[in-house]
Design a protein that fits this description.
The protein is mainly alpha-helical. It has helices spanning 6-34, 37-54, 63-79. It has one domain.
Length: 80
């Protein structure tokens, strides 16, 4: 990420991986309890909302205030 130090950039990517990991671990237990329809629908909705947030970003968006929030929401939705 242009203009960012290596450590904050690495932490941003680690938090995205953490979001994916947590969502992927929680999803099977939720599916076992309530079925597959609700988690899949919510997963698509969260992923779509994250992708929609990408349209609000520009070149000057900060990592912690813009890009990272979008990555985390997209990752959480796609892992479900």
């Amino acid at each position: 990420m242009l203009g960012f130090e290596p450590l904050p950039t690495g932490l941003a990517f680690l938090l995205t991986i953490f979001s994916l990991t947590v969502s992927a671990q929680v999803a099977p237990s939720v599916v076992g309890r309530i079925g597959v329809e609700v988690p899949v629908t919510l997963g698509f909705a969260v992923a779509a909302a994250g992708l929609l947030l990408f349209t609000r970003l520009d070149v000057d968006s900060g990592c912690w205030t813009g890009w990272c929030r979008v990555w985390w929401s997209s990752a959480s939705g796609s892992a479900s």
